[in-house]
Amino acid sequence: MSRSDSAYARRASGWLMSSAVMALLASQPALAQEKTEAPNADTPQAGISDIIVTARKQSESVQDVPMSIAAFSGADLEKSGYTEISSVARLAANVFFEASDRTKPQIYIRGVGTRGYDPGSDPSVGVFVDNVYLGRFGALDMNLLDVQRVEVLRGPQGTLYGRNTIGGAISVFTRDPTPTLNAQAQAEIGKGEISGDWLYSLAATVSGPIAGDNVLGSLAVSRNYRAGYQQVDIANIRGGSEDSWSGRGKLLFKIGDSTLHLSADYSHMDGPPLVLAPHGLGGAADDPGLLTPGYVTPADPADPYHLSTDTQGQGIVRETYGGSAELDIPIGALELTSITALRYLNFDERDDLDGTTLPFQVYLANEDGNQFSQEFRLSYQSDKLNALLGLYYYSENVSRTETIEFGPASLLSALVYPAPLVWDFGVNVDAKSYAMFGQIQWKIVENLSLTLGGRYSWDQKKVTFDTKTTVPFVITDFNTSLSRNWDSFDPTVSLSYNFTDDVMGYASYTSGFKSGAFQFIAVSPAMAQQVAEPESVDSFEVGMRTTLLDRHLRLNLAIFDMNYQNLQQLRLVSIGGGVSRIIIANAADSSIRGFELEGRAVFDSKWSLDFSYGYLDAKFENYVFDASLDFSGNRMQRAPKHTLSLGLNFETETGIGDLVTRLAYSYRSSIYFEADNNIVDPDSSEGGLGLLDASINLTKGNWTVGMWGRNLTDERYRRQVLNSTGNAQRGIWAETRTVGARLGYNF
């Protein structure tokens, strides 16, 4: 378990103070020494260099973007030992990214996110890869393969993106083919703290011309294996395991003045299983549910990283693949962009739902989905005016079945013995979304710019429920269909002023929208008819983006206030026998306010510090759950008040090569997993958490050798908990201390 908030606050304060002292000591000779570049910079400058992003669909310095944005290079993430997209939560303020397993990510930005993972709901935080929106939850938690950079945008995004996102966006950009031949190979081996947990990975990329300068191509492949950091006896599995293959190919065609990008990718992953550690809460909550007489619940495990369950064949097998075509055509002063994409996802899952050696419940899930998207953008750029107009179409079909098999230890099963008791909750969703969006950036005078934008969205969802049972007990067979349409117009306005070439201030208002949500485990036709209303948000933000001290300090500040209405909430409600209904309903009004402070300090040619701090006050203003439960005033889930990230970098030339090191600390204060804030479901919170990471890399000629470590202080904490009120709680535990070594060769 994690330590107390106060202990972590002291550690965070100590880190901050020590870093400040080092900064003061190192900065004394800074002006007299050669200025250095940020390692992820794209444009050479003295001191801190510009980071080039495309958040506004144009290449520009991150310091010119009037919004809260963080950007990280793929090379820096790789050197630090961060191989998964969820690692951005260690670096970006007010970002929470954890996952029960690879098909159930929990992504929250500024307290806005979606706990669900079902086809009837949409993510609140959009994940894009090369401008293509990933619609299915099961595809969002991915490995980073051949990545150029990752951009994290906070707040509603809709006037520049094809797919609307109400909470924010994480945009991943993979490397384009290079005009000269280049190849890289890398091997990695590592070990976790738990006995038997080891890992390795192999990766290779090749890029270069295929037909002169007019046709370029690239190919990247990777193999990742991890034994797993949770040993599970009897079932003979390990939580946190992975066995995956990934590949990505890209072609770039230059056709006159036009450019065509073709991209295709494939990923196959076996594992990790969803391993649940039981946690009895005393009294009636010690059991997973109503037990058949003669069965006794085993004692809680003494070590959540060494468990025992009886279900054989546990695990998740996931397959994702797809392709896209982006065509950019200059038309005089205009440019037309077309992005066509098709993606597929399918997976099978089998878990021990009670997490014990009792033959109580087995959970199975199967999902098969595909999506098609088409985006057109017409853009214009001049010294005084930048304009963009876009059209977007998105279509998705998803079939998913959740199955619960009751074993002889379940009293429900005993009551219908000898017939087997199996419940199947099938749902098929056909969703379509149409949108028109655009914005205009007008430079009113030399230093003052006004941005006006808007988006009209029209969403349609058709859902068919197919609930089946082998024995009509508690639930009965039914099949029903329904559909809903929603539309919304969401404007944005932003005013920015350049006080100097290196200091810009802005103020903005943005409206956001997320379509309604259907239930996905419906125990009755009446429950299937319950549809959550769309979410909406009014977001106000003011900020400063500055580069100070002769480009030795980048310091950015964003202050925001959000009025959130109809936040869609998922909650488990017990219906007896260890079975819970999963209900998706609206939480009325919520208030979210806070700020982000982040930047980079370059002390001299060797030392630099990356930092970020986020403060978040996110609470339910009005959330009456039912006649007896009022969650109004409670803190929102997965919304830590404080997030902190510090990264101390050191670079130097040595007699044996170029040395690059990084020591990083990330902290988040306590979180609640449930909206009741421990009143109904006790111990559904996690205390403050601080994680220490480090990396060291030495490059000599074409060779690079490195070492990295994650969670070096070996903090033990829960990523997620599952509650069935009145029954035992089950927790999902996070990665232990993990270290590794890397060897790479650049041809």
Would you give an account of this structure?
- The chain is mainly beta.
- The chain has a single domain (5-746), classed as Maltoporin, Chain A.
- Helix content is 5%, strand content 58%.
- The protein is built from 4 helices and 46 strands.
- The strands form 10 sheets. The protein has a 22-stranded antiparallel barrel. The protein has a 5-stranded mixed beta sheet with strand order 3-9-10-7-8.
- A hairpin with a 4-residue loop joins strand 34 (589-602) and strand 35 (607-622).
- It is globular, with a radius of gyration of 26 Å.
- It starts with a helix and ends with a strand.
Mean pLDDT: 90
Q: Structural class of the helix and strand makeup? A: mainly beta
Morphology call? globular
The number of distinct structural domains comes to 1
Query: What's the end-to-end separation, in Å?
Result: 45 Å
Task: Report the radius of gyration as a whole number of Å.
Answer: 26 Å
Task: Please name the CATH architecture.
Answer: Beta Barrel
The proportion of residues forming helix, as a percent range, comes to under 10%
Beta-strand percentage range: over 45%
Count up the helices: 4
Number of strands: 46
- CATH topology tier name: Maltoporin, Chain A
Low-confidence parts: 1-45
CATH homologous superfamily (4th level) name? TonB-dependent receptor, beta-barrel domain
Question: Which CATH top level class fits?
Answer: Mainly Beta
